[in-house]
Design a protein that fits this description.
Elements lengths: L1 H23 L11 E2 L2 E2 L5 E2 L15 E5 L7 E4 L6 E6 L4 E11 L15 E4 L2 E5 L5 E8 L8 H4 L12 E6 L7 E6 L3 E3 L7 E3 H34 L2 H15 L7 E2 L2 H7 L8 E5 L2 E7 L5 E7 L6 H14 L8 E5 L6 E5 L6 H6 L10 H21 L4 E2 L8 E3 L5 E3 L6 E2 L20 H6 L4 H17 L15 H10 L3 H4 L2 H6 L2 H14 L10 H16 L11 H7 L2 H5 L6 H9 L8
Parallel strand pairs: 3-4, 15-19
Antiparallel strand pairs: 1-2, 4-5, 6-7, 7-9, 7-10, 8-9, 11-12, 13-14, 16-17, 17-18, 18-20, 19-20, 21-24, 22-23
Helix pairs in contact: 1-3, 4-6, 8-10, 8-15, 10-14, 14-15
The protein binds 2-acetamido-2-deoxy-beta-D-glucopyranose (7 copies).
One 2-acetamido-2-deoxy-beta-D-glucopyranose binds next to loops.
Length: about 600
């Protein structure tokens, strides 16, 4: 279709070109007068009909023509009162008229020149000699000179009212060679073209050139634009835009609105929002793309993620996930506001969260310190757990994050946690074929079981969350390459410390001091279960969120701070009386695996 459009454009330009070319030939008649008879152009001073020709007082030799194009072609033009001469061509540039005259072939001596209305005249055409005769049966072409003859020469005619050279940029030249007498003619000055016998008839050739040039530019731009539109449409379709639109329509139909404000953005909108993806707008670079800060037309601030390349087969899945994420409306999940699909790699538009990542908050040196209220840490942990629990349970099949880490938990200016980057997220695969063959995730957070089976489950997120919680409470990096090998992994350090009963030492000062023994045991127990080698032994995200919230309430309670208290209220507040009985025991291989550290030497 686009090809057709550009072809039409080309035709239009060609048409305009021919019009422009035609205008450059002396073809213009007086306004309102016919400028052609059949296919013969009739330029002023010639004209068909009253007031359409130049009247120079010589009735019989004026420029008046009669057109007869009613019969079969070619049309006949009658001029100078000679109805038997049919006109073939009128030329202003050469001041010549070509006529067809009736003649009979003859072998008589030939006479050069035409002698008035003399019928005893001869002409030679193609080395043959003809005698002009009204009863002749052959049309022979005859070229005649013409001139304006009401005054003898240019100097006499100039400055008179009837001076024939009407146009500015026109010249006058004398015609004397003619047997019919002297007169003058007009032509356009060098660099101009057109009809010198009309006001404004001579126009600059450069105007035409500029006109043509600009038309060519327009054509090129139009072709480029249509190519761009084609490319955009191709990407839009490639990136699943059509499916998304259809699904949005079906969703919109039931909710009555356009899917909770989810919007399909154009490339221009996002370019404008990010100042053409300026480097100083970059918020961060992740495993799944670059994130820019953007300001939309309505002044709202957003985060725009330029994703990495996608495989063709991934696009349908991507669209499905995107649609589901757009439906998620949870205070602890970064909201997906829209997307842009008309680029090679799709871009996603998210709610902007102002105060950076939890990773920066913990390790950045300006945020979390030993004195930060334990409550803040527990709240951030509980909120993150809430978000994951919601993702795991709200949709069917559950939405798995796949890359839970502190760098993927954002904080707003009131330190509310918001989980982001479901870029690696997968709807839980429901059959063997869908199980990912490529393990994705981040070293230090990756579920060792996932690494072995390549099967991402909700318990993989639980393991990663356990690492996040550990990081938050110890203020240590999950992988530390400075110390001895056995201390490289925070998880293995923790597991060994628990085994030795020295896990309290691993905790951050503020945590150690702020928590009672019971609470510390509780949180260590929870951590131990989260980072269990066996996924089945890990608690669900919902339980973790509840336990963290209970722990937080317990810490806020006055008797929470007291050391060594072991009252019934405390136990019930912690809500794990029953769990005490089935105390978690490490199995030998868990510890061996971790101590060997082998499971942490993967590269992704
Ligand atoms: C006009 O058309 C006739 C045939 O239709 C052709 O013979 C003649 O050359 C044409 N004249 C011009 C000036 O194009
Ligand atoms: C042709 O011209 C020649 C010389 O001018 C003359 O002798 C001859 O008679 C002429 N022929 C005719 C048929 O007029
Ligand atoms: C122009 O024509 C006028 C009158 O017809 C005549 O007097 C004059 O000499 C001519 N000028 C030239 C330069 O031929
Ligand atoms: C106009 O006509 C004169 C005389 O025939 C000629 O010398 C001159 O070159 C012509 N100018 C143009 C622009 O054709
Ligand atoms: C932080 O996010 C929460 C949840 O969306 C919101 O209620 C709160 O107002 C936000 N804080 C600020 C300062 O915007
Ligand atoms: C959020 O970030 C701003 C600017 O970086 C900073 O001034 C403010 O203290 C931060 N808020 C919190 C609660 O850390
Ligand atoms: C390694 O970790 C253990 C347990 O936390 C700790 O006692 C030991 O000091 C650590 N070693 C180094 C070199 O950090």
């Amino acid at each position: 279709m686009a090809t057709m459009a550009s072809t039409i454009l080309l035709l239009i330009v060609l048409h305009l070109l021919s019009v422009a070319t035609a205008q450059r030939q002396p073809s213009v008649a007086l306004p309102g007068c016919p400028d052609r008879c059949g296919n013969i152009t009739v330029p002023y001073p010639f004209g068909i009909g009253p007031d359409c020709y130049r009247y120079d007082g010589l009735e019989s030799q004026g420029f008046q023509l009669e057109c007869d194009d009613t019969g079969p072609s070619p049309p006949r033009l009658t001029f100078f009162g000679h109805s038997d001469y049919s006109l073939a061509k009128l030329s202003l540039a050469t001041s010549e008229v070509t006529v067809y005259v009736k003649a009979t072939p003859t072998c008589f001596n030939f006479t050069s020149g035409l002698d008035g209305g003399d019928t005893e005249a001869y002409t030679s055409v193609d080395k043959n000699v003809y005698r002009l005769s009204n009863n002749g049966d052959i049309d022979v072409p005859l070229v005649l000179d013409w001139a304006v003859r009401d005054l003898d020469n240019c100097s006499a005619a100039r400055n008179t009212e009837d001076f024939a050279c009407r146009s500015t940029h026109s010249n006058c030249f004398d015609v004397t060679k003619d047997a019919a007498g002297s007169g003058y003619g007009c032509n356009c000055s060098t660099g101009y073209d057109g009809n010198p016998y009309l006001k404004g008839g001579c126009t600059g050739v450069s105007v035409g050139v500029i006109l043509l040039g600009s038309m060519c530019c327009c054509l090129c731009l139009a072709r480029q634009k249509s190519k761009l539109i084609r490319t955009k449409q191709k990407f839009f379709e490639h990136n699943g835009g059509v499916i998304l639109q259809q699904q949005m329509q079906s969703y919109g139909g039931t909710t009555g609105g356009p899917t909770g404000g989810f919007k399909i953005f154009s490339t221009e909108e996002l370019k404008k929002a990010t100042n053409n993806f300026a480097a100083d707008q970059i918020l961060g670079r992740g495993g799944h793309g670059i994130v820019y800060r953007g300001v939309l037309a309505d002044d709202s601030v957003v985060a725009i993620k330029k994703s990495k390349m996608m495989e063709e087969t991934e696009t349908k899945e991507f669209t499905r996930e995107m649609l589901i994420l757009s439906q998620i409306n949870h205070r602890n999940v970064v909201k997906l506001l829209g997307c842009c699909l008309e680029v090679e790699v799709p871009m996603l538009v998210y709610e902007y969260v102002s105060n950076g990542t939890l990773y920066q908050y913990i390790h950045g040196g300006k945020g979390l310190d030993a004195n930060t209220a334990l409550d803040t840490r527990l709240r951030i942990a509980a909120e993150s757990a809430e978000a994951l629990a919601y993702m795991h349970t709200s949709a069917s099949p559950p939405i798995l994050h796949g890359d839970v880490k502190t760098a993927n938990i954002l904080l707003n200016s009131s330190l509310t946690a918001k989980v982001t980057d479901f870029g690696a997220s997968k709807l839980a695969p429901n059959d063997e074929a869908e199980i990912a063959t490529l393990v994705q995730g981040t070293c230090g957070y990756l579920d060792p079981e996932y690494l072995m089976t390549c099967k991402l489950t909700d318990k993989s997120d639980v393991y990663s969350f356990g690492v996040v919680l550990l990081e938050l409470l110890t203020r240590k990096k999950v992988l530390c390459f400075d110390g001895p090998e056995e201390n490289m992994s925070l998880v293995s350090r923790f597991v060994i410390a628990v085994k030795a009963g020295r896990h309290g030492e691993l905790m951050d000062d503020g945590v150690r001091k702020g928590m009672g023994r019971e609470a510390l045991e509780e949180v260590s127990h929870l951590l131990t279960r989260c980072v269990s080698m066996n996924g089945e032994e890990r608690p669900g995200m919902k339980e973790i969120a509840e336990r963290l919230e209970a722990l937080r309430r317990y810490q806020q309670h006055p008797w929470g701070q007291s050391d060594g208290a072991d009252s019934e209220e405390e136990k019930s507040l912690l809500g794990r009386k029953q769990q005490r009985d089935a105390d978690y025991k490490f199995r030998p291989h868990d510890v061996l695996d971790l101590e060997g550290g082998s499971t942490h030497y993967f590269s992704v």
